[in-house]
Structure formats: structure tokens, C-alpha cells
Amino acid sequence: MFSENNNESGKCALTNALNGCNTRKKSTDESDGSLPRADSALSNDSTTSSQRSTNRVSPAVSPKATQQNAGSSAGGGGGFNMRTGSDQPQQQRGSRKDGTPYSRNNSSVNREKDAKRKALTPKQIEELAGGLRKLDLAKENSLIEQFITNDFDGEECGAAVGQMLVQFSIEENRQAGKAVARIAAQLLDSGAAQSFHQGTITALVHYFDCRDRLRIDHFRVWIAFLNFVSDLYSNVGYIYEGELVNLVFRIFDYLLKAPVLETLKIEELESLIGCLLSGGYDLERQCPEQLAVLKDRIRDAFVEVQEPWARKMILLLMELGASGWKLPAEANEYYFQQTSS
């Protein structure tokens, strides 16, 4: 389990885990969309990501490459089929029952987003700048200052900042996740909205690609990842073809199926419960078909799981939908106080 002591050996172990996962994935899929660890604060390279980003942005994090990679990886190489629990190539993604496609052309979606986006006001720019500086990103501050100077515009900075904020929230300062999620929602009205979002998705997908190793060897980082995805979705919602929501559903599917189901930890189930409490209403409104499949998965997990405490918490997942995605006070006492005793 990953120690709370953020020492150099712990950083190296985590970096090696992420790099090792990335190497194995690249051997089977050259377009993996993973976060280049050379641009991470945990890289063994002494050159910081902010220094490189100030002068140039690597092709691996360029907006075009980031968008292509995130699009392919967020669905596991195309699209994730919740009904079968497997990844499918992009060309196999079908249509809904009413005949409408699950996804639209990226360019048309992006044009719609650009048209709907409201320009940041001077007051909002000032508030965003203050929020980012308050994070105290240390060696990444030069990148942040460049982004602020450009009034949060510029594709290169946007992609780099998106990836850096994800890494910071998950690995460096787990208490900052909620604040970063709010900042991310505000940045979706900036000129760098699209590249920032794609940089964020690319980083998150890389952590998910390394889920098995993180869960076993770096559990606190894994939980920080789960909580950050939940916080981010509750602030951002369904945008850019649902790349983030697709990741949310994949996380649920991963945790609620064997073999992971039988080794679930209470922190993981608490994160799933928190995700539905904060985002269940939006999931029901934006993607009812996928949510219906998720409800089936939760029901199956309730039947299959052996641990009584886990069954009790999965039952709560089942009941949240019927309660309007709210947790009654008596449920809090029943589920959590008895579970912890």
C-alpha cells in the first residue's frame, strides 16, 4: 500500500508502475492515449514539465494528438460496451434503439461547444488566476503563470495544464481535488477549453489503464484517482461526447465485476456511493441507457458479492436511484455506522 510519506522512493515506485503500465500497453496498441510520464512531476528526468512546456509542447501532448489519444483510450480502443463489459473498436459502435448514434463527429461537437462557450469576464479571469495560484504548484508555477498571462488561452498551455492538474491532484496534493475540479469547470469557458479538457482526459485514462498495479501497490493513489474522477464529473458533467462519463461507467464496471468484486475495499465503495450522490441525477438525465445497464451491474454485484458489509453498501448503491440520488439521514446511520463497527 502506498505510504502517506511522500518520499523519493515512493515517488520512484509509483513512476515505475505508471511507466511499466504504459510500456506494456504500447506493445499492443501504439495509439494508447497514455500520459507521457516524461511530462510528469514524478519523472526521473530532472527537467520539469513547466520548463519544457514554456518553450515547447511535446507532440505527445499536442492538442491534436491529445484529442486523438484520449478519444481512442477513453473507450478502451474505440468504445466501451457496458452490456458486454468489453471494449470495442470505434467502427463497431452501434446506434441507440431509436436509431440515433452514440457519438457524433468530433469536429461538429467541438464547434457546438465553441459556439455555446461564454467568454471569461475580467472578474472570472482574476478569480481563476487566484484559484490556481492558491494551489501553490511549486515547480509548475511557471506554466501556470504563462497560462494566466495568456488569459487562459492557447492550445499548448491548455493541454499541458490539464495533464499537470490531474497529476497534482492525484499524486501530490489529494486534498486539492475538489478545488481543482471547480477550476476545471471554470476553464471550460476559456479559449483553451477543448485542449485543456483533452489533456485532462488523457491523464485520467492513463491512470485507469494502470488500475491493477495502482490498486495493489499504490492504493491511496488509486483512491485519490477515484475521488478526483467523481469530483470532476460532479463539476463538469457530460461534455465533449461524454469522454469523462464513459470513464465513470468503466470504473463502476471494473470494480463491480469479478475478480475485483471479491477484494473490494470500503474506500472504493464509498467512492462509488459518493459518485452517484453527486452525479447520479446528471447521469440519469444525460445517459439513461448506460445508467440502466449500470443498475443491472449493481444488482448482479449485490447477488455475487460474499462479504456482508460489501453487500450492504452495494444495496445502498441500488437504493440511491429510487431515493432521487439522496442519502437519507437514517441510511447514513444504518449503512456506515454498522459497517464500520
Automatic annotation (TrEMBL):
Any Gene Ontology CC annotation: cytosol
GO terms of molecular function: RNA binding; translation activator activity
The keyword Cytoplasm is assigned to this record: yes
Record keywords: Cytoplasm, Translation regulation
Domain of life: Eukaryota
Locations listed in the record: Cytoplasm
GO biological process: regulation of translational initiation
Domain MIF4G: 125-324
Stretches for region Disordered: 1-122
The UniProt record lists the keyword Cytoplasm: yes
Protein name according to UniProt: MIF4G domain-containing protein
